[in-house]
Write a structure and sequence with these properties.
alpha+beta; Alpha-Beta Plaits; six-stranded antiparallel beta sheet; 4 helices; 24% helix
Length: 172
């Protein structure tokens, strides 16, 4: 059997319900069981973008290597979301949630499936994704256009993203 080489992977995490710092810390610890060589951004406080009548979010990004497919990664992160209290059947779209984990980048893959779109389709419009991403992966570029994300970030209006601190040392 041929072993698949690990893929450089970036996830974006957010929470604005319950003990958000504790939930994010637990989620990152669980992600560390299958993403190797984790690099973890600072935590950022973010004003809600799409549904403003809710608490601010805490957001961060993690980067590491994953040795299986993007579909398997999606199942693993959805299991973490569910295990830490997310119920997709009852939550309002873009509303409050205990935990949201998105696959932002999976190497240079461009994936368009019903349940999985990589790179994340709205990431280029969201400071709360790009700021933590660039903190841990400053040379990151859009796999579709090749445009550096730092250039994309510079073109965005202020969206109320401020550094809130750190849950970890930056690597695990």
């Amino acid at each position: 059997m041929i072993e698949k080489p690990p893929v450089d992977t970036v996830l974006s995490l957010g929470s604005n319900c319950g003990d958000s710092p504790g939930i994010l810390k637990e989620a990152v610890s669980l992600i560390g069981a299958f993403l190797t060589g984790l690099n973890i951004s600072s935590v950022y406080k973010t004003v809600p973008q799409d549904c403003p009548d809710q608490p601010d979010f805490l957001n961060l990004a993690v980067r590491g290597c994953f040795a299986e497919t993007a579909d398997i990664l999606l199942r693993k992160i959805q299991g973490i979301e569910t295990g830490l209290g997310r119920d997709r059947n009852t939550e309002k779209r873009y509303g409050p949630r205990t935990l949201d984990i998105d696959i932002i980048l999976f190497g240079n893959a461009v994936i368009r499936q019903t349940d999985l779109i990589i790179p994340h389709e709205r990431m280029k419009k969201r400071q709360f994704v790009l700021i933590p991403l660039l903190e841990i992966y400053p040379e990151a570029a859009d796999p579709v256009s090749g445009e550096p994300f730092r250039i994309i970030l510079e073109s965005l209006p202020d969206q109320g993203v401020t550094m809130a601190g750190s849950l970890f040392c930056h690597t695990m």
